[in-house]
Amino acid sequence: MDKLKSGISYRDSGVDIAAGEAAVKAIKNKVRTTYNSNVLSELGSFGGLYRIDKDKWRAPILVSSTDGVGTKLRIAIMAEKYDTIGQDLVNHCVNDILVQGAIPQFFLDYIGVGKLSPVMVEQVIDGLITACRENGCALIGGEMAEMPGIYHGNDFDLAGTIVGMVEENELLPRKSIAGGDLLVGLASSGLHTNGFSLVRKIIFEHLKLDLDAYIPECSAVLGDLLLAVHKSYLNVLKPFLGNPALHGLAHITGGGIGGNLSRILPDGIGARIQLPADSILPLYSWLQNAADISSEEMRRTFNMGIGMICIVQKGFAAEFISQTGGKYIGELSEITANQEKVVFA
């Protein structure tokens, strides 16, 4: 066996510690713009420190979630556009804890790369910072891992963890969910972060299109359609989280409307959905027609233009719709054990 050459370094194996340190230095001041008086640590510490404001919270429950952005990353890599994918990640995580009534407090990210590009990392972090600031969430830590044996070429992975708080008596969904409640849908900005494996198959294998292709049916360039930022619903819903007339929320991600709404419906309660024609974005009709996808498969894979479903007390629905810009999409009723939880009209 040949001996290793003398003086071999970690950099020779593909890991550049100096580049990692430069990337952290470049983003440090930007990350501080997300801090508030509860952040007690600096970026680069072994752990992030966050103080609970005892004057603001009476009986706080911690709510946490970890997620990624799926194969939407592949689109960002192909487009060499990295500033929106971080926003997608934060907003997705914010929505996931929002459905339990939680207000985000802090966020941590993970970026795994084959070869560290400080420019790419800075753009991703810029997106994280933008969304954290918009959601009032402190970015208190993270990890950049350079692993040339795992990630290849320009490939990278992105994941995040969010921690929020909710008063114990304001946890969602409420036990008051019942037949007669109405369903209000809040519009999505597009695909959000789900269904991209199917979308990539349709666009690149079936239609053989490039990201710069113009789609007349959508009046937009394909790359812009696919990279539209996953919408956060925190700011529009925050005023209603303590209102007992808001009975529940469902973030419409993988599994579509049926799969996600059924997760919060109690036994014996089902939903009948009737999506308004103008809520289904042109992108979905275009995808369905391009690959002859069944309506059932479309609903199971995509959000169909509805990013969040709100269960509200019937007498409160008109006011809620007026203030949120939502649309009536259905109602709840009592069902028997052998009936489907969610059906579409």
Question: Can you characterise this structure?
Answer:
- The protein has 345 residues and is of the alpha+beta class.
- It has 2 domains: 13-170, PurM-like, N-terminal domain (60s Ribosomal Protein L30, Chain: A), CATH 3.30.1330; 182-344, Alpha-Beta Complex (Phosphoribosyl-aminoimidazole Synthetase, Chain A, domain 2).
- The chain contains 11 helices and 12 strands.
- The protein has helices at 17-32, 72-79, 85-98, 118-134, 196-206, 222-226, 234-237, 256-261, 282-291, 295-301, 317-324; strands spanning 60-68, 103-113, 138-146, 156-167, 182-187, 214-215, 220-221, 246-251, 269-273, 306-312, 327-334, 342-344.
- A 6-stranded mixed sheet has the order 8-10-5-11-9-12. Strands 1-4-2-3 form a 4-stranded mixed sheet, covered by helices on one side. Strands 6-7 form a two-stranded antiparallel ribbon.
- A hairpin with a 4-residue loop joins β6 (214-215) and β7 (220-221).
- α1 packs parallel to α4 and α3 packs parallel to α4 (118-134).
- The chain is globular and about 75 Å long.
- It starts with 16 loop residues before the first helix and ends with a strand.
- The mean pLDDT is 94.
